[in-house]
Amino acid sequence: MKKLHLGSMRSNICSALSFAMTLAMAVNTPIYAQTLTSQSTPLDHLKAAPRPVFKKGNTLLPLGQAHCGLSKDTYIELANYWGYGLPVQKDNLAEVAQANPGRYHLVAGVGEVYRFYDNYDGRYPELPKLPPNTWLRDTSGKIILSGGRPIVSPAAPNEAFQIIGDYYGKSIRQLEITAGQAIKLIQNQGETGLWVPLDNDPAQLYGQDPQVKADFNNSGLNDWFAYISRNKARQEGALKQKLLSNLQSKSTYSWYQEQYGTERGRWAGWSWYMFLYEHFIDSYKKPIVSDYTAPEMYYNFHNSGWTGIEYNSAVPWDALTQALNNISGAISLGQKFTYPWVSMGWEGYTGQPISSPDTFMGMMKTYYTAGAIGSVGGYFVCGGPIWEALNYNKPIGATTPTLIRQLTIQGHAHALFSHLEEYLRKGDLLPGPNLHPYQSWTKLLPAMEFPAEGQTQQVESRWGLVTIRTARVLARKISGEDRWLVTAWANVGSDRDVKVKIDSKLGTLTLRARRAGSVYVVKYANGLVQKTLIDSDAMNPTKFLSP
């Protein structure tokens, strides 16, 4: 640092301020809070938030984003201080990476794959053509349309998906060349190609194609759901492998909605609405497509929020119960980590609520305790004044936008578990004493949580009263050691002490369950229980941690 002249008061002040700024940068926190006004932009709000402190050298995945756009400077701020990957397909950000060698984890996306499948009639001449047998056909050989769109055949050849993978792989490779480094994470937005039957009889839907019917009869399978799932894994796996073959090194690959099933087994018709995850795991217990399960967890969207039931099924339908169903099933197939796509809500849908920030933080802490090693932030306002302010960094007012608040909470939770990564990598999520409630229509699985004493309430369902939990406790244990990571979350009500039994060595633990979650390290040594609250500041959980 250049030596400052000390002969004036102004120079002394400048010197002190320079030192303070250097210190603040060292701990990744702003030196002072920015005053927010009616003219504040989304980036102003992000810069005004207390920054998290990450553990140096952690190997968690970079955080991802799935929304309709932010300004270039906001993307850079998120990548600099909040644990997010730099999305190099946007705003010439590959050149930013090139100018800062090794500073960023790079993220690339695979989107609009549906255009390849809709291109059966050549409507997108700029795209390479797929083989004729990519699509479902009737007995006369005519492509079968549903709602004006073709249906991808379960028997479609690998060549079709290799063509798609090669197209995206070559494009992403050019980004690597520009950036001068490898892509760390690829996000495939999914929801295209061969799909689950939904309300259709799969034998009638897919069996109307003679080639598919013959392929099914020769498959050795007597179950159309298994047949569709196995072929979906084959097709997406072929796309992935061809894409990755173009790249500098193997990127982590996340295919949205690949999962054991957040709602698998909740009701009799579940198999019409999800692929069978066991067909996405090879004989060596290695994933064929997504490296980690990638379920959706959007607040009060296909779930009842942080508490509640599904009235007709008479079972808990909250987001954590769903998440633990997916995690428990994946663990049973040898997959202990997850990389979920999450949202605290978004404006614009009638009746679509937005989570309180503290309870969203609590949910994220429980999700990481359960095995998350990152997450993708979803938000789906894609037009209007809010979108314009986010996308172009226009004034948005003194209230922090939902998306910015959500992304900062994800960053804080991610940073917290960068300090606790040992408990993820070397530890295992404990099953708890009970079975998961989604057991009527699938195999029995442990609930993966521990009941807090007296922390329940009853709610009315179609079939009578259902008991649900008002505080949640999850625990991981380091293999072969008497060390636990325990998280307590008040998903209902206010912060309070709860009692729970996790291990006979520990007796009954008293934990502070907070709306924003409480994360403890618990040790047993020399006959004594040692309990340490790691996140003293619940909403700024790394405030007192050192990098």
What is the helix tally?
14
Tell me what portion of residues adopts beta-strand conformation.
Answer: 15-25%
Q: Report helical residue fraction.
A: 25-40%
* CA-based gyration radius: 25 Å
Biggest sheet, strands in spatial order? 13-16-17-20-21
Low-confidence stretches: 1-32
Query: Sheet with the most strands?
Result: 5 strands, antiparallel
N→C terminal distance: 23 Å
Shape: globular
Mean pLDDT, all residues: 93
Number of strands: 21
What would you call the structural class? alpha/beta
Q: Topology of this structure?
A:
Layout: H1 9-26, H2 42-48, E1 64-66, H3 72-81, E2 86-87, H4 93-99, E3 106-110, H5 114-118, E4 145-146, E5 149-150, H6 158-179, E6 185-188, H7 202-207, H8 210-217, H9 224-245, E7 252-255, E8 296-298, E9 309-310, E10 315-316, H10 319-332, E11 341-343, H11 357-370, E12 376-378, H12 384-392, H13 402-418, H14 421-425, E13 427-429, E14 456-461, E15 464-469, E16 472-478, E17 483-489, E18 496-501, E19 508-513, E20 518-525, E21 528-533
Parallel strand pairs: 1-12, 2-3, 3-6, 6-7, 8-11, 11-12
Antiparallel strand pairs: 4-5, 9-10, 13-16, 14-15, 16-17, 17-20, 18-19, 20-21
Helix pairs in contact: 2-3, 4-6, 6-9, 10-11, 11-13
